Amino acid sequence: MPDADNTLIFYIVGDNGASSEGGFDGTINEVMNLNGFPTDLHTVVERLDKVGGPDTEPHYPLEWAWAGNSPFQWVKQVASHLGGTRNPMVVSWPGHIKDPGGIRGQFTHLIDVLPTMLEAAHLPAPKVVDGIEQKPMDGASFLSVVNDAGAGEVRTRQYFEVFSNRSMYDNGWKANAQHTLPWRQDVAPGNWDSDKWELYNLKEDYSEAKDLAAEMPDKLAELKALFKEEAEKYHVYPLDDRGAQRLAIPKPTPSDPNRTHFVFYPGAVRLAETAAPNTKNKSHTITADIVVPDGGSEGVIVAEGGSSAGFALFMREGKLVYHYNWFDEERTEVVSEKALPAGEVKVKMEFAYDGQKDELGKGGTATLFVNDEKVGSAMIEKTVPGRFGIDTFGVGEDTGSPVVNTYSPPYRFTGEIKAVEIDLQ
Q1: Structure pTM?
Q2: Do 329 and 32 touch, CB atoms closer than 8 A?
């Protein structure tokens, strides 16, 4: 690498702590668990030979997460304890670090990494980006720690909060309140005032093994007051302990939270699910103007999601098909009664949601139209309430894992797509 000795590299090992989101028995579809539908153990066993392949999105049982985080308590999402937050970090800077392989035990936080990079590069934090004024960074550079194992801590105070699991670190002391369980996405406990707070001295007890709360109530009260102060400063309140329920809250639609009409053109692919129109828990229509060549066409007109969950409107053997994938457990297809004619054609899928305004994941009827003529209809018994997963939205192809288990991605449309319109009720 050119100028390798002057290249600063940060390698952070992990994404929070090890994850327990697979539940006690593990799962073959993590997205299903996160939506509040635990996988039945018998289903996991039946498809055990598929784990690790492209037909499942598995997650190990939570017991492995607990073991993986040892000697720390708890797991990912439980930000109250180090098992939910503490990760190793490796820093490489050959021309500057004088003790390669050295250990640094000073407390740092992820928000401190970028300020450290900026100081190392002798660059100021940007005040304006693309004409948008930036908020000041909350992090502090720990470049002094990188260069000197004996340097003092630059971050002496930090709050933590995820799903109401919360903690306050201050000069080696740490107060913790565990509140929710990651494998219970369908439960919203509330009652924050009844949470049991713990107290640890990390300078003498790095793994949070000895709870000092009963011995030092004044110190605990001091840290609880600090948490409240930091939480108010950084807009943590109101606390929200919902799991799957929070996941199902509609995100603001692109450009305008009240927008209900969207138009997409070929080339609009790999859009994040949260950047695409949210068709969940409501009636909606998908309309496309396409050109079918002589001899018919194949391929995806529009698709969102993947093998874990999602929908696709596509052509197969010259016929229009709408496929709905409910967590790879229930799949529903509507197929047009006859092949589409050649030339310019308007196709539409109209979904009539059976649930009321605040009811999530209910079923509905999907109806297909070709040139305004009804050509097929079917009842979809259940729909996804929150998220389809990590796969994306796209026009003209299905990238990533396929929504439909009978075609191979990207299954590009062989005709012409002029536009795809989505209307939400």
Answers
A1: 0.83
A2: yes
